[in-house]
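Section 3.1: Structural characterization of target chains.
Under the original work plan, the team committed to producing a structural model for every single-chain target entering the pipeline before any wet-lab resources were allocated. The record below documents one such target. The sequence was received from the expression subgroup and is listed exactly as submitted; it comprises 126 residues.
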Amino acid sequence: MDQQDQLRELFRMQKALNQRIGVVTEGMSEADKTKWVLNYTRAMTQELAELTDSVPWKWWAKYQKFDEQNARVEVVDLLHFLISLAQVLGMSADDVFAAYVKKNEVNFKRQDSGYTAKDAEDSRHI
């Protein structure tokens, strides 16, 4: 299975999971989209906090250990919510892939130019 097929499969699986718990992204009203964008971004914020807690960031606490296995789980949890968010916004796996490729090109151009000033216009085509 190539990378694009794997991404499509993740989107398919996430859609099935969301539908099982009662979240159908097709035909959502603007109010529902707003609700679910907020729900998923809040969920991702929590998952980021849990990921942060997987590493010993408390310089004053000597008991902490790096929990790489849990960090990996939190990354996958983030991906679940990120795919759900993309689906709420009407993005397919192909849309995300295409936007990623374009944004990656912008990021390389920014690095090539020294990225000394923010230019929101350089991403308008994505």
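The chain has two domains: 3-91, 93-117+122-126.
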